[in-house]
Amino acid sequence: MKLYLLLLSPPVVARAYQTPIPGGAVFHIPLVTRRALEARRSLKTPERSGRVLERQKGKQQQIDSLYQGYGTHYVDLWVGTPPQRQTVIVGTGSGAIAFPCSECTVCGELHHTDSYFIEADSTTFMKVPCGECKFGRCANSVRAPDSNLMDECGMQEYYHEGSGWKAFESTDITYAGGPHDKLQALHPEHNPQTEDDIDPLRASSFSFNLTFGCQTYTSGLFSTQLADGIMGMDNVAKSFWSQAYENGMIDKKSFSLCLSRQDEVSPQGTEAGALTMGGTDKRLHTSPMVYCYLEPGSEFVIDMRKIHLRQGGGGDSAMSSNPSLRVLSFNYTGRAGEESTRGKKVSIDSGTTDTYLTREIAPAFQEAWKKLTGKIYNNDPVHLTKEEVNTLPTILFQLAGDEKKNDKVKKSHQNPDLLVGLAGSLDPDHPLDVIVAMPPSHYMEYDKERERYVPRFYMDEMWTPVIGANAMMGHDVNFDEDQHHIGWAESPCDYSELVEEFEEEEIERSQTKPDAEGEEKDGEETINTLAAKESEGLCKSLLCKGFSTVLLLVLGFAGVLFGKKRLQLFGFPKEARYQPTAGVEIPDIEGKNVPPSGTNTVI
Q1: Rounded (to 5) percent helix, strand, coil in the chain
Q2: What would the pLDDT profile of 97-125 be if each residue is shown by its tens digit?
Q3: Is the CB of residue 311 less than 8 Å from the CB of residue 393?
Q4: Which of 50, 125, 127, 292 has the highest CB neighbour count under 10 A?
Q5: Mind giving me the DSSP string for 265-320?
Q6: What is the DSSP letter of 325?
Q7: What is the pTM of this model?
Q8: Please, which residues bridge with residue 5 across strands?
Q9: Backbone phi, then psi, for 377, in 5-degree steps?
């Protein structure tokens, strides 16, 4: 099974029942709204990109829009009966799922996309009683130790940058994705043998009883962020993907995140990637997936071996568009005293907007940076044009690879020397390591208020270093506990284009090709019938009837030939017969007041 979730990106970053579906389901959460998708289905689009999309039969998938806020990415959760929308940050460095409920009085409702979740309005909501706690605890209630609120399971999380929240453990029927701006009607049971995975209107068929925290208090960025709450995706039992697996919604302990970033952000949602639960979707990839080893049962932490700085102008890919560009390399030293033969540990966290490495690498990084740019790297805002930004170095992270899997990928490639994503000649001692490119367009973020670019790659982390969302962007990253790997494939992460192309394919398949001979035969049959009727009414003798019939047949046949010739002379080619309707507007829900972009922090 796979589940494709739409992601939304808010202004904050934090770190810190149905019957199981047989046959391996895949859920998609699309990158287009329901109204946009329905509008596309009404269009007849002749021009194609040339890419043939295969129908994904035999899988359960769901598609919904991915949106970008002012920091990380977030996804829609529809909770309760009837469902209420809550938007939640998707963070692979956090495990908990929580959002504000009715008892929350100062939890940032004016800043969030939605009102608080109202428990009383859901007929399936249940507060988990003390004694049945799954993820919380009832002893010494975390909400109010001196109160009488002991018949609940308290939950709380605090993060080192100062944000935090308190909640009580709850359960309710929940599904992810679907139309962003409108509650969808219940979708009939999906038949994976006849329906494709790209359909956001099927989201509710993947509902399950989710355990989450009903927040009663939030602080810091949790009160001012655009998204309502957080959806943990770490390798722990309380994460969303783990609960989906336990409830039979996916049959593999695997999911993929594909993140992108747009120049302009709307509070109503800006498309920005895809989340695939249950595996990965190769249709998003522009390069083969290559793998890093993941220790069984561990958090999403892997080994970094080296860092390379490539001279600017080589494009966004790990494979430079200009092989003559200089590349300067140095070992990644990690934290002081850390020992490893495979490199030093780094966390992969989509809930952290930026990338934070240890201060131990700063001297080597600065030396290489100055050789390539003539300047010292810092995190001060700087005035640059887009063209000047693109001349800055691309940062290449060399991650310890799963040699067995990557060797198999290399041998299956038509031209191994041109395989994107492996170290190859960049490190002859470790050619099967993974290379992840972070181009300047990803680590340089434009600040509209100051009209400056801000470098978002930091070398001051005192704890676990983090590869954040800005380094993950441009890749479909597969987190697979079953196969013990984290996979990387380069991708534009443009799921909306994928959906649009597929919809156009569906339109072409649904069009019935005219049968010219059949149409001519039908026309002749009609003329014969009319001739017989006319001759019956006007003539009584056999001679008259015969003459009338022959005359009408001759006239009818001449008319068919003339009409066919006219179509050939004045008709238009098939591919130009249908044109899309221009100016289709897809309204969005009314946005709430959103504060200006603040400081992105780490969850």
Answers
A1: 25, 25, 50
A2: 999 999 998 898 888 888 999 999 999 99
A3: yes
A4: 292
A5: --TT--B-EEEEETS--GGG-SS--EEEE--TT--SEEEEEEEEEE-SSS-SSSS-
A6: S
A7: 0.75
A8: 275
A9: -80, 135
